[in-house]
Design a protein that fits this description.
The complex is a heterodimer of chains A (about 80) and B (about 240). Chain A is built from 3 helices and no strands. Chain A has about 80 residues and is mainly alpha-helical. Chain A has one domain: F1FO ATP Synthase. Chain B is mainly α and about 240 residues long. Chain B has one domain. Chain B contains 6 helices and 4 strands; from the N terminus they run E-E-E-E-H-H-H-H-H-H. The chains are: A mainly alpha (about 80), B mainly alpha (about 240).
Chain lengths: ~80, ~240
């Protein structure tokens, strides 16, 4: 197989597999945040702020996969 | 690839000093524009402060309270927090201004380049390690890599993990900011570039609302990424100033 073709296939695979983890993580995170807000609506502001920080962390992991995909497409 | 040619820099005024190339590119113009607009806004809001605040002063007090009590005092503690507030606030406003300026069509987002987030992350890296060394001495600095609640036989595992973490934390700070800004703009260019690719205006009925939603999401993501950068910097500085062992 041509190395360029293999690199493009790998980039697609990398991005696909690399989105499973963060997707599950963000779903769980928002679910638990909603449960927390439903139990105690007065703490809603703090829970929301903490949820956003958690989402930014989880999103960063999927962006590591994006960087590897970019490296595969353009540098190999 | 035609899509990524928007991410190349265009030189506007070439300048050289010796063998250093310090031309004015569109990155420079965007950075100065973004930071300049923010500076003029903040100076106008903070002009003529009174003890009983008027409407303009309330806005800037809100912003300063947000950074001071929400970020610095939360992570570093009230006593040391006053010393570190200018650095964290400067990082926050700089990253926020540079993220937001990319939303204006025709400008370049400085934080989507490789260099700008790397330099800010390196500043935080050196600040954290030098503060750790200066405040806790060399024994205290080595204690961060070998915390005392770990039994001695686990040092073989924990010390390499902590050492890799010392490199990985600022690296993740840099990659998180750069990749978020790059990804937002790439999605926008690809979606709107579909109209040019198919050479058909009917694609615009689907593409333009999607691009509008992505732009709103990107406004949101710029603000959140600036906040996460600032709060993580404050967290690392807090760990260096008050080591938890």
């Amino acid at each position: 197989m041509d190395p360029k073709v293999a690199a493009l296939l790998a980039a697609g695979f990398c991005m696909g597999v690399g989105s499973i983890g963060p997707g599950l993580a963000i779903g769980n995170l928002v679910g638990k945040a909603l449960e927390g807000i439903a139990r105690q609506p007065e703490a809603g502001g703090q829970i929301q702020t903490a949820m956003f920080i958690g989402i930014a962390f989880a999103e960063a992991i999927s962006l590591y996969a994006l960087v590897v995909a970019f490296l595969l497409i353009f540098v190999a | 690839m035609v899509v990524l040619e928007h991410f190349h820099q265009k030189v506007i005024i070439p300048l050289r000093i010796g063998s250093f190339d310090i031309s004015i590119t569109n990155l420079t113009v965007s950075m100065f524009l973004g930071v300049g607009i923010f500076l003029i806004l903040l100076l106008l809001l903070a002009a003529r402060p009174k003890v009983v605040p008027g409407k303009r002063q309330v806005v800037i007090e809100l912003l300063i309270n947000f950074v001071k009590k929400g970020i610095v005092y939360n992570m570093i503690g009230p006593k040391e927090g006053d010393k570190w507030f200018p650095l964290v606030a400067g990082v926050f406003i700089f990253v926020l201004a540079n993220n937001m300026i990319g939303l204006i069509p025709g400008t370049y987002t400085p934080t989507s380049n490789l260099i700008v987030p790397l330099v800010i992350a390196l500043i935080i890296f050196f600040t954290v390690h030098i503060t750790n060394l200066a405040k806790n001495g060399i024994k205290g600095y080595l204690r961060t890599y070998a915390p005392s609640f770990v039994p001695s036989w686990m040092y073989v595992i924990v010390v390499p993990i902590e050492a890799i973490g010392a490199i990985a934390k600022p690296f993740s700070l840099f990659i998180r900011l750069m990749a978020n800004m790059l990804a937002g703009h790439t999605i926008l260019y690809v979606i709107l570039g579909l109209i040019t690719y198919f050479k058909n205006y009917f694609i615009a009925i689907a593409a333009v609302p999607f691009a509008l939603v992505m732009t709103i999401l990107e406004l949101f993501v710029s603000a959140i990424q600036a906040y996460v950068f600032a709060i993580l910097s404050a967290l690392y500085i807090g760990e260096a100033v008050h080591p938890k062992h």
